[in-house]
């Protein structure tokens, strides 16, 4: 237990000694201020590191400044990897903010990933945060992938672009009969009556629900959208498509001269809609 200040030698009070303090009030305040300033400087350096790391996509020289900034920030190796992952996520978010990802923007993302030396597991985690946002941005930019072995037979010059699991839905109407008995009764014995009349009722709709009619795969090509199920198949040619309803977990195609619209449940309706739009209007979505 120290009895005097470690800096000036002044005698410490009983309260400071009991709490394990080694500095007098004056020097303790100076030490606290120094520590606070150092913490603020490290926090500022960490913010600077994140900004500079994010700029590596467009500034190759930024990587050379990172080690010195990391030293000022006091980053451990684990903290540096985590910060680099945050920077990569920032680069990706900025690139697809407009839901449009060009080849140049994706090349910049790849440069940042390589330059920051983000581990593969961290890269996958970053990409997963954006769900299908990256793929949708590619599609909106007119960058349609090609599937070499789709589940359907292709027509001449037809190309398959997107293939997803899907469920064909149908609407079921629930009915019940409502009505009553009309007529009169005749007593024929004590406690016994004979009833004459008839029951009249009508069937009324009390509700509807969606049920799965079939399960299969939805294939989107350059010419059509095709659902291939276990029991049935549905084809929607793009020239005959008059409207599309998009849901978070579904897509509905309205086709001319078809009485009922085709409703499909999919994992991401916006992804399907982006692919259909790009396939139908390849020239309009490309800059």
What does this entry look like structurally?
There is one protein chain. The protein has a 7-stranded antiparallel beta sheet with strand order 4-3-2-1-7-6-5. Helix 7 packs parallel to helix 8. The protein contains 9 helices and 7 strands. The chain folds into 2 domains: 1-130, no CATH class; 160-285, Roll (PH-domain like), CATH 2.30.29. It is an alpha+beta fold. Strand 2 (192-221) and strand 3 form a beta hairpin. The longest helix is centred in the N-terminal third of the chain and has 30 residues, at 25-54.
* Main sheet specs: 7 strands, antiparallel
Mean pLDDT: 84
Q: Structural class, please?
A: alpha+beta
**Could you tell me the strand content as a percent range?**
25-35%
Unreliable stretches: none
Secondary-structure blueprint:
Elements: H1 14-18, H2 25-54, H3 62-73, H4 77-95, H5 103-115, H6 120-129, H7 133-140, E1 160-189, E2 192-221, E3 224-229, E4 233-237, E5 241-247, E6 250-255, E7 262-265, H8 269-280, H9 282-285
Antiparallel strand pairs: 1-2, 1-7, 2-3, 3-4, 5-6, 6-7
């Amino acid at each position: 237990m120290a009895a005097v200040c470690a800096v000036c030698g002044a005698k410490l009070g009983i309260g400071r000694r009991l709490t394990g303090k080694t500095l007098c009030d004056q020097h303790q305040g100076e030490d606290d201020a120094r520590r606070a300033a150092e913490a603020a400087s490290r926090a500022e350096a960490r913010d600077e590191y994140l900004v500079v790391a994010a700029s590596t996509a467009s500034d190759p020289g930024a990587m050379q400044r990172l080690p010195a900034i990391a030293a000022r920030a006091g980053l451990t190796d684990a903290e540096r990897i985590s910060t680099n992952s945050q920077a990569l996520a920032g680069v990706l978010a900025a690139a697809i903010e407009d839901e449009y990802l060009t080849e140049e923007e994706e090349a910049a993302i790849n440069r940042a990933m390589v330059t920051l030396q983000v581990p593969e597991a961290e890269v996958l985690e970053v990409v997963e945060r954006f769900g299908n946002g990256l793929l949708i941005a590619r599609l909106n930019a007119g960058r349609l992938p090609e599937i070499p072995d789709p589940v359907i037979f292709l027509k001449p010059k037809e190309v398959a672009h997107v293939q997803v699991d899907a469920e064909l839905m149908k609407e079921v109407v629930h009915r019940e009969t409502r009505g009553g008995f009309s007529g009169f009764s005749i007593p024929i014995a004590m406690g016994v009556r004979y009833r004459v009349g008839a029951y009249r009722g009508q069937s009324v709709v009390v509700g509807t629900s969606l049920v799965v009619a079939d399960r299969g795969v939805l294939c989107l090509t350059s010419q059509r959208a095709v659902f291939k199920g276990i029991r049935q198949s549905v084809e929607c040619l793009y020239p005959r498509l008059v409207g599309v309803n998009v849901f978070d977990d579904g897509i509905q195609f309205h086709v001319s001269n078809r009485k009922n619209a085709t409703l499909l449940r999919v994992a991401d309706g916006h992804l399907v809609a982006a692919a259909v739009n790009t396939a139908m209007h390849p020239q309009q979505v490309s800059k």
